[in-house]
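Z., the sequence and structure:
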Amino acid sequence: MIKQENYNPMKHILLLACTLFVFGSCTEKTLAPVVTDDIPPGEVTNAVVENIPGGANIKFLIPEDTDLAYVRATFLRNGVERDTRSSLYTNQLSIEGLSDVTPQDVKLYSVDRSENVSNPVSVTIEPMTPSYLTIYESLKITPDFGGARFTWDNEDETPIFINLLADDTTSTLKSREIHYTSQVIGDRSLRGFASEPIKFAAIVGDRYDNYSDTIIETITPLFEEKFDKTEWRIVPLANDHDWNAWGFDDENIYDDNTESYAHTWGGTGWPQMFTIDLGGLKKFSRMKLWQRLSSDGFYYAHGNPKTWEVYGRADEPEMDGSWDNWTLINECSMVKPSGLPMGSVTNEDIDAAHDGHEFTFDVDTTPEVRYIRIKITATWDGATYCNFAEMSVFGQSQGAN
């Protein structure tokens, strides 16, 4: 007999629960479809093909089987059989990534929840020219300052990559950069080359392992140098802004360090300006500007410049800040590759920010200048201040004092 003082009802309840759990755990469960049969579903009907670049969209009517799970299409991509599926909630599927315009038969199957497969329905697709090939046909390689410029059109905004190549010291084409993009207008340059004949090349590829032929051009880069920023100095004109706010330094504008910043005070009015003496007459080819990049939240936001104007002159400016005798030589607008709203960035956006946004000058109409004045007209987030990391200018030095 159990003595009352030693009896613990909670302990007995726990023991019983553990015993039931152990026995229950030993029971093996088999997962299976709720409904099983060996009856194939009906076939799709009224299949209609819409040919697209590198593939096709196929619409159809699904059978009325209550246990239909999906429709599957089988096709060949680069000689390998592939398949794609649509659920029972849609009546179309897409075939993408074909490498050429060769017609092929595509088989459509209905599949039910028991994995029974219908008889195939065959349709013929005739893919239009794949985007990677039309992009390749549009690609041009032309002389640029210090290298070559690659341009192309991507009207379908297809995600692609451009492999940019150039001769190395052994006259062998070597990959110098792989540029991933889906922008409508493509524009990329390889620089850092001497002004002598050299082979440049490019290959276009897509995410389905399709690759174009190689376009090769022998060109002579235009002579270009990066202007020596040790010759630069800030010229504090009367109506320019103070770029030393919050412990930052205006000389960070040209210290060749993209991790240091120049910053104005909030609420000091628009547009916001600064003036630089380049130390001698210069013929501009391009300018690069780096945003403030200290964290993800700063990309294309937080007072980073969005639009600005570049003015130049050869003679020393009036210290009162008068705009007399200044010539507008460029209007710049920073472009976010993805076009996404502020706060959302892609890897392409981030890469562009770290590469520095580039702006070219018309060498035929841009005069030689010694002094430049930057007028920032808008920031990305509409802040009452402005900040950025670095500015570099390239071209040809015509002389120095």
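The first helix runs from residue 9 to 25. Confidence is low (pLDDT under 50) at residues 1-32.

Let me know what you think.
H.
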